[in-house]
Write a structure and sequence with these properties.
CATH class of the largest domain: Mainly Alpha
Distance between the termini: 25 Å
Protein name: Glutathione S-transferase family protein
CATH topology of the largest domain: Glutathione S-transferase Yfyf (Class Pi), Chain A, domain 2
Family: Belongs to the GST superfamily.
CATH architecture of the largest domain: Up-down Bundle
Helix content: 40-55%
EC number: 2.5.1.-
Radius of gyration: 16 Å
Amino acid sequence: MKLYDLSLSGNCHKVRLFAALTGAPVEIVPVDFLGGEHKSEPLIGMNPFGEIPVLVDGDVVLRDSQAILVYLARKHGGDAWLPTAAEPLARVMQWLSTAANNVQHGPADARLIDKFGYALDKAHALRVSAQLLAILDAHLATRDWLELGRPTIADIAVFPYVALAPEGGVSLEPWPNVRAWIGRIKALPGFVGMPGIE
């Protein structure tokens, strides 16, 4: 399998991290993001949205980090990481939606503004971040993991941009349960970091 990757991307990090945790054999292919490689062939043919990560596994070409996590979990992680029964599957999937929405439009957008100069609405990103972190901290007050009493791809999907929140001016100091959860993820056997998450 090949993962078209950017080391500074939290979305790419989700995939690298999950592959490391499960031992999935992934070859990392760095993408020249600043040079616009993701907007030209062959990558634009693999993902017409012009975004990374992109995973290629033989004839299978997948875009979107959440979809890639689902694929790798089914191939390499089994029910431990992504259950097949209706209720536990839905409980995990609701956090993948949270990652694609609240996390992306909160701490991820705040980081894009502060670290990379994107012209996005910082006040909105901070409001979304505050709401997200309050909900996440309350949820984690009574559990170690987001769902099912064990690490799942729910945790992996939400983790990177929450851990990177300070790079967008979003403090994690008020959220002790979130910080403890980040520590538990970092302590998982096989954990790999990225710039900003060591």
